[in-house]
Amino acid sequence: MVDALKLKLKTLPFGTHAIECHLDESFFNIDEQNEVRHADVDVTLNVTRKSESTYRLEIACDGTVTIPCDRCLDDLDLPVEVDYCLNVEQMGTELDDSNDELLIVPSDWRELDAAPIVRDTVLLAIPMTHCHENEEDCNVDMLDLLDSHLAEVVPDDADDTQSETTGTDPRWEALKKLKEQ
Q1: What's the pLDDT tens digit per position in 106-135?
Q2: 49-64: buried (b, 16+ CB within 10 Å) or exposed (e) per residue?
Q3: Number of domains composing the chain
Q4: Does the residue 152 lie in any domain?
Q5: Could you say which of 1, 46, 78, 115 would form a disulfide bridge with 5 (CB–CB 3.0 to 4.6 Å)?
C-alpha cells in the first residue's frame, strides 16, 4: 500500500498515471501516534509528468476516519472527502515545502514518497474540534462522570471582597472616608 505511493520520478513516463489504494488506521499511525482509531479511506492519486522535472499530483480521498469525541471520548466516525493538487518541481539541491501549491525537491532525487502528502491531506480534512453532532449521541456514563467533577461556577458579578451587608467593596468605603476628610 505505502509502496504504491512511492513515485519513481526519473523513470515515470510522460502523461497521467492513476494510482489507487485503500488506507486503514495503520497508514495513519506509521510515523507518529495520532487520534485515528480506524480508517476506511479510498485514495486516487493522479500523477502527471509534464516535463523532465515538472509533475502534478492530484489527490482525491473519500471515506471515513474514526477518532475520539472531544466531549465523551467515544468513537466518532467522520466522513472524509477531500481533493488536493500539488505541483512538484525538481530543481536545485534543497527541499522546499514552504508553498502549499508547489513542492520543490532536489534534482537528484530519484523517488518521491507521496505517502506523507496523502496522510496530511486526510488529517487536515478532520475538523479542529470533533464532537458528536448531538450531545445525546455521547456516552452518558462519561458525561455524568465529567459533570461530577465540574467546579462550581461563580457568577462574574460576585466578588469575594464585597461586603455581604452593603453590597459594596469595603476598600471603596475606606477610600470614600479618606476623601471626606
Answers
A1: 999 999 999 999 999 999 999 888 888 888
A2: beeeeebebebbbebe
A3: 1
A4: no
A5: 115
| Distance (Å, whole) CA 80 – CA 82 | 6
Q: In what order do the strands lie in the sheet with 102-105?
A: 15-23, 38-49, 54-68, 75-90, 102-105
C-alpha cell, 3: 509502496
Q: What global pTM score does this model have?
A: 0.75
Three cell numbers at 60?
482525491
Domain that holds residue 100: 3-137
176 belongs to a structural domain: no
Please give the Cα distance from 123 to 143 (Å, whole number): 27
Residue 93 inside a domain? The answer is: yes
Q: How far apart are CA 98 and CA 95, in angstroms?
A: 9
Going by pLDDT thresholds of 50, 70 and 90, the confidence category of residue 169 is confident
Strands (E), 9-97: 15-23, 38-49, 54-68, 75-90
The DSSP symbol for 141 reads H
